[in-house]
Automatic annotation (TrEMBL):
<dbReference type="GO" id="GO:0015035">
    <property type="term" value="F:protein-disulfide reductase activity"/>
</dbReference>
<feature type="transmembrane region" description="Helical">
    <location>
        <begin position="135"/>
        <end position="157"/>
    </location>
</feature>
<dbReference type="InterPro" id="IPR023380">
    <property type="entry name" value="DsbB-like_sf"/>
</dbReference>
<keyword id="KW-1133">Transmembrane helix</keyword>
<dbReference type="InterPro" id="IPR050183">
    <property type="entry name" value="DsbB"/>
</dbReference>
<feature type="transmembrane region" description="Helical">
    <location>
        <begin position="64"/>
        <end position="84"/>
    </location>
</feature>
<feature type="transmembrane region" description="Helical">
    <location>
        <begin position="38"/>
        <end position="57"/>
    </location>
</feature>
<keyword id="KW-0812">Transmembrane</keyword>
<dbReference type="InterPro" id="IPR003752">
    <property type="entry name" value="DiS_bond_form_DsbB/BdbC"/>
</dbReference>
<dbReference type="GO" id="GO:0005886">
    <property type="term" value="C:plasma membrane"/>
</dbReference>
<dbReference type="GO" id="GO:0006457">
    <property type="term" value="P:protein folding"/>
</dbReference>
<dbReference type="Pfam" id="PF02600">
    <property type="entry name" value="DsbB"/>
</dbReference>
<keyword id="KW-1003">Cell membrane</keyword>
<keyword id="KW-0472">Membrane</keyword>
<protein>
    <submittedName>
        <fullName>Disulfide bond formation protein B</fullName>
    </submittedName>
</protein>
């Protein structure tokens, strides 16, 4: 069970690191984010929060399984949003009125924390490559990796029930 808590902590740390890398990209390398970029930041931070909540407190198989399941669901949401960004949004002139834009603006996150959730580019303008790979694909790969870790941990937790 201790190993699963460590996996949960590692997922949370990697997820938070993804947000830090996005902020470095934005402020150091001048890569302004679009609505889908900052929406994925929100998902990464939700994953980190769920991991932190799962690590603190009294560990139990059920509790860890619930938090791992939530993390896995958030990873699926992240994969879906990154895929949508690559296949649809980055080929559109505007991200306005998309799910990501509405969540970020109507929740007030964009105006409350503009340094973190500010939308400063259209999806087409935010389409950049890093090491020859589109930035959104990097995000998708991180979500897939985190989801894989959560899945492996969930499988090990359920095997102990048998």
């Amino acid at each position: 069970m201790q190993r699963n808590r460590l996996v949960l902590a590692a997922i949370g740390l990697l997820s938070f690191s993804g947000v830090l890398l996005a902020l470095i990209s934005q402020y150091v390398f001048n890569m302004p984010p679009c609505a889908w970029c900052v929406f994925q930041r929100l998902i990464y931070l939700c994953i980190s929060a769920m991991c932190l909540a799962g690590v603190v407190g009294q560990p139990s198989r059920l509790r860890l399984s619930v938090f791992m399941s939530i993390v896995l669901a958030l990873c699926v949401a992240g994969i879906t949003s990154a895929w949508y960004q690559v296949k649809v949004a980055s080929n559109s002139f505007s991200c306005a009125q998309t799910l990501a834009d509405q969540v970020m603006t109507q929740s007030g996150l964009e105006s409350t924390l503009p340094w973190l959730f500010g939308i400063y580019a259209s999806c087409m303008d935010a389409k950049v490559t890093v090491l020859g790979v589109e930035y959104a694909y990097w995000s998708m790969m991180l979500f897939i990796f985190l989801g894989g870790l959560a899945t492996a941990a969930l499988i090990s937790l359920t095997k102990k029930y048998k």
